[in-house]
Amino acid sequence: MKARELDTAFDENTVDVIGHLDVNSARRPQREVQRVNVDFPVWMVSSLDAEAARLGITRQAVIKTWIAEHLDRHAS
Hints:
Layout: H1 3-12, H2 42-55, H3 59-75
Helix pairs in contact: 2-3
């Protein structure tokens, strides 16, 4: 299936296009992961853990969310 046909099938919802895609090799640009180590003081880790428990998410999720929010605000 050519790209234009795939676009049309997707837009018109006439064909299940997922069968025409190789989802195992799909990548999201600018979403690759790079590991970064950061040292925090104990009081900050305790505060992060308390916030994570309050929200029901992991410490890493709190950190990533807060950094993303900060970067979004400053990009505008």
